[in-house]
């Protein structure tokens, strides 16, 4: 193997004398003994050690990491000369000088990626992988490199290169030709010829590049939707998922909380078992305030007793939605009944140590009445989800003071600025740590009027990100953490 000659150090006194006599006529470092000299791929000189010469004179210092000083940024081309340099220049405990995977692996791979990209750009290639095709199609590479191999000291960095760039482990990495992967391009002969053909001779510019960009994974939570209603509206009982087959951003609905607040539609035991097959779905059960408007006290009491049993079921995470609703202009008697049922559900939530999902529709007075019912029956540290919040900033602050752990659901109201222009200003003032994403699907449509879906959480996150001047990933992360903490969800 031609690389073996790189370790041939002995030159006779006669040969050295002949070389010294005419050194000025030749390229620095070239040998004058024709029988021992081999041509450098990049210059006209002949060298006893063309590999060592090429690494030192024509290629960036970092390309062969184990024979470089990472402090001085010098390439020596041979391990023995690195050792001599370390003794003469650096103390033995200067750990930053020699290449180690722990300290320099990532940096080295990115530097090599950058150099390969620069060569590819010089060729006009759109992808670095096109350099492999160029090597395999050019007969000069076959003639020069078909018998070449990597040295043992090169294998570890090559494996790091493949791993960090998420390339398939190269079973043929001991031979650089044919170029079966990008790691084949790291052989000094292949790089020399590529450098020559591309005309890219800049060895001083250091550019770090990630060839493999890990996809950004964004987890969303729909903290409030209605699976039963969604099933009847769209004809599917499945909790949806984003299409993740495009771009570098992978969106996932990590979990969703389906609210069952109309007792006549509460799922049976077998239906709940079916729902729980989707590991992402959690359930809440409660009595919606509008159910109070049309039912007898006896029926309501039976439902409250049934509710206590349902709350002990698997994957049930909260009581609700429950609260007050005056949009139907209920009589004072009915409103009194709503408050009574709300108080009873609050006490059940306290007993079960479960969060409460609050439905509060009306005016500022309605919000105050609802808050009074809760403060009288729940401790200040109780977890509360203020569902579909679109009140005032003063209301937001008042609820936060009363219940510091309260979270406010931001719904698709935010997507309809024409109908709800004041909501944008409110969300701008609210803290991200207080927010939850919720769609209330299928009740609230998208901005284009389409049927509401849990997938709208992505649009909500993007809108909130724009209002708060942060990334969508940041909004998704914070609101997901908020939901997990509020609903005490540890495992998905």
From TrEMBL:
The record's SUPFAM superfamilies line, in alphabetical order, gives: Metallo-dependent hydrolases (SSF51556)
InterPro entries recorded = Metal_Hydrolase (IPR032466), TatD-like (IPR001130), Znf_C2H2_type (IPR013087)
C2H2-type domain location is 69-90
Per UniProt, which keywords does this protein have?
Hydrolase
Q: What Gene3D superfamilies would the database entry show?
A: Metal-dependent hydrolases
* Keyword DNA repair assigned: no
The record's listing under PROSITE patterns reads: ZINC_FINGER_C2H2_1
User: So where does this one cross the membrane?
Assistant: none
CDD domains associated with the record: TatD_DNAse
Enzyme Commission designation: 3.1.21.-
PANTHER family linked: DEOXYRIBONUCLEASE TATDN2-RELATED (PTHR46363:SF1)
Entry's family note: Belongs to the metallo-dependent hydrolases superfamily. TatD-type hydrolase family.
Q: What is this protein called?
A: TatD
